[in-house]
Design goal:
It contains three helices and six strands, in the order E-E-E-E-H-E-H-H-E. It is α+β, with helices and mostly antiparallel strands and about 80 residues long. The protein has a single domain, classed as Outer Surface Protein A, domain 3. Strands 5-1-6 form a three-stranded antiparallel beta sheet.
């Protein structure tokens, strides 16, 4: 599975937050979601994304890193921020 950012019309990223402008909406992200957007600026595998998030934030308590990353990526894809191949 490869994950990549759906290119926004414009984007501002600062202090762990990101605002992405698309034709019909502005989306504000922070924390893990903002990090995923940053890391997925270039296509990245789910496994590499999970490793990078674990290095940055530590392991989640309630799920495996891979499962938590997949869930977050699916949520962002559902919001129209990520493309998953």
């Amino acid at each position: 599975m490869r994950i990549r950012l759906k290119p926004p019309a414009d984007m501002l990223a600062r202090d762990g937050e990101a605002i992405l402008l698309y034709a019909d909406e502005a989306i504000r992200l922070d924390g893990v979601s903002a990090a995923i957007v940053e890391l997925a600026a270039e296509p990245i595998t789910l496994e590499r994304l999970a490793e990078a998030l674990e290095a940055r934030f530590g392991a989640p308590e309630e799920a495996s890193v891979l499962k938590a990353t997949a869930a977050a990526a699916r949520e962002l894809a559902g919001r129209g921020v990520l493309l998953i191949d």
